[in-house]
Structures are given as structure tokens and as C-alpha cells.
Amino acid sequence: MNLRESLRISWRSIRGHKLRSTLTTLGVIIGVASVITFMILGGAFTEDILGDVESENAPVMQVQTQTSPEAGTGIMIVDSPIYTESDVAAIEGMDDVEYVAPIGELPAVQLSNGTESVTGGFTTVATNGVRFADSDLYDLQAGETFSAADEAVVNNQTTQLFDANLSVGDEISLSFEDGSTKTFTVSGIVDEDITGQPVQPAVYTPLEPHYNTTIETPDGEQERAYPSLEVGATSLDTVDGVQENVLAYFENDADARQLKTDGDTIQVQTLDDVVDQVSGIIDQLTVFIGGIAAISLVVGSIGIANIMIVSVTERTREIGIMKAVGARKRDIVQLFLVESVILGAIGAVFGVLLGIGIGYLAVSMLDWPMIYPLDWIAIAVAVGVGVGVVSGFYPAWRAAKIDPIEALRRE
Amino acid sequence: MSIARSSDETGASPVVSATDVRRTYHLGEPVHALDGVSLSLPRGSFTAVMGPSGSGKSTLMNLLGALDTPDGGAVEIDGQSLTDLSESEQARLRGTKIGFVFQTFNLMPRLTAAENVTLPMVFHDTVDEGRRERARTLLERVGLGDRLDHDPSELSGGQRQRVAIARALANEPALLLADEPTGNLDTETGDEIMDLFHELNDAGRTILMVTHERQIAEHADRIVHLVDGKIDEIESVDGDGR
User: Which of A117, A121, A179, A319 is deepest in the core (most CB within 10 A)?
Assistant: First the structure.
């Protein structure tokens, strides 16, 4: 019997039980819809936090030391100061390098503005002024980079720590672990919301005279050293070349290579690398949640199998009639399989529509950009049809096995 | 058994022949539903099978209709032996050589009259355009030319049985097998159905009808009496029962 004919007969029987068919497909609809919804949310979230970065991509890279913890998995950032002034100078001398900004943390514990103070919850970083003057990455929203020892740049998050938001020209003071206090004038406010990751309040001060951590170099001299560096390349076209040169330098010549602990690795990550890393993590999370949502697809599939078995029992007599007029086993299998595949496919199609609908609503409420996860839509439709095949197979086989004599005797 | 043998001599090439057919059911103890039945149906004959319940009427019908296979003996339908057929070949044979008419009509409830008639053609992969036309012709033939798109639930019992007869004729079967075709109909409607069988028989159809009503059986050319799985007597009907 040809496929069109079984489509027609199966469709007739689905329509003959409207309520039942609707409830059956509902299982698949919910399963597919939840998978699609989560995929839209995941995709939109990625797009929301990374979309800006991709459009504002800057030729900037971060040099850091990483270690694998002895117990457990993952990676940790090591903050021992191993990048010396000589390393900074060597990188500054490379082709296409726009600037090198050492990042040295200062042990400040309290930040005050007038009578208000904040203890902890912020970082204090000593760096050089070119980081804010020359970088494409950071927008100075107000003011300019520091140019004197008692000037500091703060980020947006810091200005919001105080009731009266900080502005350029305000005075702030930092109290350090050793009890000393230094006073700075805010020279500029920087916008650091670029990677979409939460940004900690930060105060940036000049290196001189505040940062004094030194280390003994392999040559036997005492030099200032930093736990990490930021390197800016001249343009996006040169950033990869610079990254390679810097990596090569750290693998072969750098002081840091000899100063680092065995087993630690020196990482040179461009903004692009960071974006890849973040989107990779979100993708994994999305697939994980989507996987949980897919469990409801399994439930939906059991629903189809269940109703098909009921249907086979109910239609025993019809199966007997069909066999009496010449239906072969495979005709019967085909009829029931087609029916369950139709149920699965309808479930998948409406599930995709519903999922897109819910996803769209959620995304607009969260103010995220809408995305259409085409790959997942295709997967969902395929899975819906697959669910129909799998859950229809056993009932169809049972139907085909029915003895026509017994079936026709039934009232 | 002498009478059975004599019937073999009548037709040149019988449509169906059963030779010493046995069928035993094992329901706790073996039940010999058919215990050595030989019967042949000459082309164009109209045979009725009568007998009390449990006499093996239904078993005989199932065997001659290729719904069942014998435990012993041989059944040949239109020159084809049932014994060495696979299940799917058996289904095919059923679809092409046999037309069933049941007491309870057995129409597909969700298909229209015309679709019910096309059903055997669907399973036989008859070309699509031909089917609808043939269904119309057949339904006109049984007097239901104006009921093509009616659901079975919209038809009377007699009309349903006519649809069933049209369906049985769909693939031009060699044998029309009717199981108590008037059992669910009132006398008047039953007579109309029997008239239709006569017309078909006059046009050359070979018909085997199982019934327990003497009056209905007398419509046939001859009556086979089954008792305890054996042929007790084959009676010729002289007077025309119509």
C-alpha cells in the first residue's frame, strides 16, 4: 500500500479521536517547546552579554599565570608577581605593540569619600596611565587618565559605592593593610562593562610611588614585578601576531619563565579568547538545561506509545477487517507507524512554535536580543518524528500480529 | 463421503477445492473442528453450508477464505495451494481471490462507503484513479450509487451489507464468501440481499454462504450439511428458492 493512502487513513483515525490525539501530542509539544525555549534563552543570554564585546572588539590581551590545583579540576589564576620590568620593556619594544600596562594589586582595605567609607568589596590596582589614554578598550566616560601621583581613575561601579556618586575632581582616600592612608583626586571615570561579566568596583592608581613589590631576577637584580600584564596591539589586524610574539617571548626569554613555579603556565589571552571562553561556558550550561528539558520529550514519547497501544486494542476488529480484505502485516505496521509519526511531527511543529513564542516573550521581558536557534529547531523536529517512530513501533508490531479470525469474532 | 465425491465431478476446474481437510484446536483437550472434509466449489456455483453451532461451519469458512491454514489435507484456491504460502502471500491471495461478506457487515467505521469499497484495492496497490471509478461502479451495481460519500453510521443495515458486498467484489474475486449475510437483517431486507446474491450468481460469481436458516440456505444450488466437523449430507436444491 502506498504512503499517501496510509497517510489518508491514519489522518482519518487521528481526526476521529480529536481530544485524545490533542492530549497525546501535548506531551511532545511541551517537551519540544521547553527545549526550544531554553535554547532561545541561552542563545539570547550569550548574545546579550557578548554581542557588545564582539562589536567593540579591541586588540587587547591579558598576560596571566594559571595553575591546575592539586585536588579537583579547573584552573586557578596565580597572583605571584613574576612579570618584571625587563619583561615589560621587552614587550614594549616588540613590533605592533601599542602599550603595555602592568597590573599590580595594592593591599587597600578601605575606601573613603568624605565621611562615607567602604571596607572590602573593591580592588585597588596600580598601573600606568597609558592603559586609559591609549587603549581602544576602555572608554573614559569623564575626565582623563591620571597624570600625577595623587590622582586616580575609578570605574563606574566605584562611583556608585557612595550616596553622592563620585565625579571627577572628588577626593577619595585609601587605607592600607599597614595602617597608612593615601588621598587621591579622581581624575577620570572609566566604563569597564565590556565583557558583560560583573565588574568589581576598582580604583586605579599610578605605579609610582604606590607599587613597590620587587623580586630578584635571574640576573640577580631586584626589579619591580607584577602579577599580570595587559598588552595592547596597534590594530585588530596585528593582534594575533603580537599574541604569538608575546607567547614566544614568555616561552623562551622572559624572566617570568624562570620565576614562575613549575607546573604553572603563562597565558596570553586576547579579548576574543575571553569571548570564546565565556560563550563556551554558557553554551555548555544551555545544553545541560536543554537536556533536562528533553526529559519531558521522553515522557511525551511514552504518552504516544501508551495511546497507540490503547488504539490498537480498540481497533482490533478494524485490523481484522483490513486483514480479511488483503492487508499484509507490513501494511498494518505502516498504518500505525504513520499515525504515530504524524502525532510526533504535529507535536514537534507546534512545540517549536510554542517554544519560539515563549522564548520571544521571555527574551523581550528580559530585554535580551531575540535569536532563532535554527539548529535546535531542526533537531527538535527530527526528534519529534523519531519519537513517533520509536513509540509507534511496538504498538504497530502488536497490531500486525493480531489474528484476523479472533479479531473478526470480537463484538 | 460418496456424495462429496460426486460433487467433484460436476465442475471442470473448481474454484476452490478442499481435500480431506482437518483442523484441530487445542483447548485443553483437542477439538476436531474439521475432521476430514472434502468439498469442491465449481465455477459459478452457489453453495450453502448449514449445521448446528460447533459443527465447523466457521472453521470451514476461515480455511476456504485463507484466513486459516489446515492441520491436514489440502486447500486449493483458484489453482493455488494454501499450504506452501507465506503469511504475506496468504494475505495477498485473500485480497485478490476472496471477497468476504460478514453477518455484522464489518465496514471500517471512519471510512466512507466508497472508501470502504476501495480498501481491498488500496492494499492491492491498484492504480489510484481507477479505484474511485471502480468503487462508484460497484456501489451503483448494488444500488447505492447515491451513497458514495456516506459514513457507515449514516446507512441502514441493508445498505451497509450492500456496501460490504460491493467491497467484496472490489478485486474481482474468484469466490464470494458470505457468513450469515442476512443474520443481522430483517426478513424483507434479508430477501433483498439474497436477491442480490442471486443476481451475482447469475452473472457467474461463485458463492459460498454459511447460514443456519434453512429458508436462506434454500437460495443456493446445493446445501452442505456439516455435523461434528464432517459433511453429513450434500443436498441439491431443486426448486428455486427465490
Answer: A319
